[in-house]
Amino acid sequence: QVQLVESGGGSVQAGGSLRLSCVVSGYTYSGYCMGWFRQAPGKEREGVARINKYGGRTYAEFVKGRFTISRDNAKNTLYLQMNSLKPEDTAMYYCAADGSRGGLCSGFAAFGNWGQGTQVTVHS
């Protein structure tokens, strides 16, 4: 059974930092493209960042220069380091997996397996 479990969310002041983690089990983690998404109340879910099995990264424009996605294939863990947080970053953050290309990424629309989410709240 595929499981993705996020942690690390919380409440911070604008300008602060958080590091999210996602532990994956139930499949060969290194063979999947991994990603982070977020959904704010009343808004659609949007892709934040994704990383392929080789470490190649893609970021949404609104987080470039502030967020860093990384993965540890030995620990089956995905990370999202979030710096210079803004109130508009407030959302539920989800990790997700895309196995359609054996670890290469196809785009944010290709993700199919999701975690339960971790809440990030940024106060002004």
Structural commentary:
- The protein has strands at 3-7, 10-13, 18-25, 33-39, 46-51, 57-59, 67-72, 77-82, 91-98, 113-114, 118-123.
- The radius of gyration is 13 Å and the shape is globular.
- With 124 residues, it is mainly beta.
What's this model, at a glance?
With about 120 residues, the protein is mainly β. Helices cover about 0% and strands about 50% of the residues. It has strands at about 5, 10-15, 20-25, 35-40, 45-50, 55-60, 65-70, 75-80, 90-100, 115, 120-124.
User: pLDDT below 50 for ≥5 consecutive residues: which ranges?
Assistant: none
**Helix/strand order, N-terminal first:** EEEEEEEEEEE
User: What is the general shape?
Assistant: globular
Helix segment count? 0
Annotation, overall tally of beta strands: 11
Give a short account of the largest sheet: 7 strands, mixed
Q: Average pLDDT across residues?
A: 94
Structural class: mainly beta
Report Rg: 13 Å
Strand content: over 45%
